[in-house]
Design goal:
By secondary structure, the protein is mainly alpha-helical. Helices cover 59% and strands 0% of the residues.
Length: 122
Amino acid sequence: EYHAEHNNFWPPQGEFYKGRNLGNWVYTQRQNYKLRQKGELGASSLKMTDQRITLLNEIGFVWDGKRLGEGSQWEGMYQLLKDYQVEHDHVCPSQKENYNGQHLGNWVRAQRRNYRLRKEGE
C-alpha cells in the first residue's frame, strides 16, 4: 500500500505508516539481507529467509537503499522532483521539505553539492 501511495519503497527511517514504523522495518529488512549476503549467520540474518526475499522481490523491493545517484532510487527521486515541479512550478524545495513522504529538499541539496564538487574537480 505504501508503494501505491508514494510510488517508491523508501520510507525514511522512523516514518510511520498506518500506525507502524515502516521506515525502521524496511531498514531492518535491508540490514538482515546484507548480513545474509555476507554470510554472517546470526539471529538477524537467519530471519531473512529465501521465502521473504522472494516475496519482497515480487513487489519490486529495493535492497540497496543507500545508492543515491545510481539506479532506481535516484530515478525515483528524480521522478518525485518532476512531480514536485508540476505541482509547484519550480524545483527549489526548501532543504527541510518533505514531499510525498520523502526528504526531497535534502535530496536536491545533495544533487547540487555533488554537481558543485564535480565542477570543482574538473
